[in-house]
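Input record (one chain):
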Amino acid sequence: MRILILPVFALLASCQITGGDAEPAQDAPMVSPILTSEDARDEYSYAQPEVARVTHVALDLALDFDAKTAGGTATLDILAADGADTVVLDSSGLEIASITDQEGMGLAFAVGATKEGMGEPITVKMGDARKLVVAYKTRSGAEALQWLAPAQTAGGKFPYLFSQGQPTLNRTWIPTQDSPGIRQTWEARITAPEPLTVVMSAARVGEPEAAGNGRRAFKFEMDKPVAPYLIAIAAGDLVFRDLGPRTGVWTEPAMIDRAAAELEDTEKMVAAAEKLYGPYRWGRYDMIVLPPSFPYGGMENPTLTFLTPTFLAGDKSLNGLVAHELAHSWSGNLVTNANWSDSWINEGVTSYFENRIMEALYGKQRAMQEAALQFDGMEEAIAENGADADITRLHLPKDADTPDGGASGIIYDKGAIFLRTMEQIVGRQKFDAWLMSWFDRHAFQPATSAMIVADLRENLIKGDAELEKKLMLDEWVYEPGIPSNVWRPDPQAFAAVDAAATAYGADGKIDAAAWQGWTTAERLRFMSRLPQQRSADQLAQLDSALGLSQEGNNEVLFAWLELALANRYDPAVPVAEDFLAQVGRRKFVAPLFKTLMEQGEWGQPIAKRIYAKTRKTYHSVTTGTVDKTLSGE
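The corresponding structure, as predicted from the sequence alone:
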């Protein structure tokens, strides 16, 4: 597919304009290319990268746990077109004290009006300067940063801080160009009060140093260009344990044994991923298990994946989450969607890759079952939105391409099933060779749907008209619904489970012994296949037979609470209240409040009562969704 180069864009020195025929990238630090095609334009950033863009960020910040702010300087390296004298940065609530050049000379700047969902632009008259020093402070309510009181931690003695930058929240604590296509190297010096430990999504440089006034300084360096949302920080009472030669886990002392046991297969996962799609290029792969208010299952921050404690099931049954975040080290971190209309290039490819890692480590049966759940997720999204709905396209239309837009059943699941369909048609060996080469050709670069389709045609299809017809690339990427060539899971993958669900629906018989032997995927499949309208007596019988209210696996407990609350089952309310008070993961929290609100006079008072107590414990990512649910938006 031909990519239109906009005539208004100026070529930047040492900036490569790429289409579907990029040369293989090297692992050495480099200036990442900025795509100049129309479909690569990011409408949710104020940046003008065709004029001037940030290539490196150096942070020197002090963490203030009393004021709940971070303050100091961000020094920005700028690459600009000939004659350019202005650069535009992204901000959201940052308090800018001054902006100077590297010699300390003041530069004129203006902070524009705030726009919902984008923050405000900072326009800097930089003249000939190509290094800017921004002195600033975050506001107390910066959405990317969650400051926890000691009581909100496992240890209960020290405060805690963590960030969540994706998709566009890092502009609330870093003044840079906050767009996934504007990749940047970075470094940081962070001071925090003793005895807190600071970790970041980059290699630590040296040991902590005394910084005076009972504080220590921690230094970090990321020498590979990354999307700005991947700059991440955490600070608290943290300890570390090695899991292998290049893997390990950080968490609070009270959780370290449990976390290490759950994550003991991580080194094997890295090796399996490399065997599939090439070398791991980020050095170490460490993880941090955060407090339960972390709003996502995981966040693929380079060298330091952030993980929710809700995946700690005690039996590794939920460590597909780890495989997913690890896979992002190739799809997402290495090759990043240039803007938010192509999020499937990040999440869909990763979901497919995750499943392949799980197959390599745990066998075909578990992988097939988890792939079947992905297929279910895709079908549910299609059913909910309609087969003709634009939101069911992989390349999201303009009304759905917001930074947090789209549906997970499309971005994640349809994207994964698209790749699985291609694998089935061309054969695994041939498909794997293409996918590995895709990562190599576009390493450390942003990408668009147009680019991946063009790459498939050039490097996989190679002019084979019959194969082009079979793959139906345009239908998958640009059309709504599910193409007719879709891969379908083996109906035997859940045959016994589906039979048990059918039998329960017919006569109410529950095979508790079978349930005990089922995998998490099988239990979730069973719960999804149950009749959705149940009486109180039927729910009590189900709960008693399977021990659902005492379930230690949070995915299964969540599935039970959704069913129970949707049927206005009073005994489930205290269980839900306890769950919502302990867990801040949006995947769980938002649907449960939505289910309660949908129950009218029964559920709405319950939802409002619980939320009044729990809202302060949630990250802004979670409250941003739940606030709208409770207000009726």
